[in-house]
Amino acid sequence: MDVVWFGLLVVGVAMLGMLAGGGRSREDIRAHRRWDAAFEHESRRTSHTDATGMLLCRSCGASAPERAGRCPGCGALL
Ligand SMILES: [Zn+2]
User: Fold this and answer.
1) How far away, in angstroms, is 75 Cα from ligand 1 center?
2) Cα of 63 to ligand 1 centre, how many Å?
3) How many CA atoms lie within 13 A of 23 on its CB side?
4) How far is the centre of ligand 1, averaged over its atoms, from the C-alpha of 37 (Å)?
5) Which of 33, 43, 50, 55 could be stapled to 78 by a disulfide with Cβ–Cβ 3.0 to 4.6 Å?
6) Over the chain, what is the mean pLDDT?
7) What integer pLDDT is reported at residue 60 of this predicted model?
């Protein structure tokens, strides 16, 4: 085998490896972000909720009805 072709082969394999690795790591980051968003959503959904349907405002600590969506005291999103 000619040494030039061998060199090209090595470079080609290395590039393929980098492409595959890069694609995989990008996919990993995306999956991780999806998981983070799902976890964040889940933790928000379950936080401060009890059977009365009242939520505690995370800004001022006042209780507000869950259906209102906003704190009556400071207007922050619940
Ligand atoms: Zn508030």
Assistant:
1) 6
2) 8
3) 6
4) 24
5) 55
6) 80
7) 94
**Amino acid at site 31:** A
Single pTM value for the model? 0.31
**pLDDT (mean) for 48-52:** 63
Parallel, antiparallel, or unpaired: how do β-strands 63-65 and 54-56 relate?
antiparallel
DSSP assigned state of 70 = B
CB-based burial label for 64 (10 Å; 0-12, 13-18, 19+)? buried
Please, what sign has the CA dihedral across residues 8, 9, 11, 15?
Answer: positive
Distance CA 12, CA 18 (A): 10
Instruction: Please tell me the least confidently modeled range out of 17-21, 46-50, 67-71.
Output: 46-50
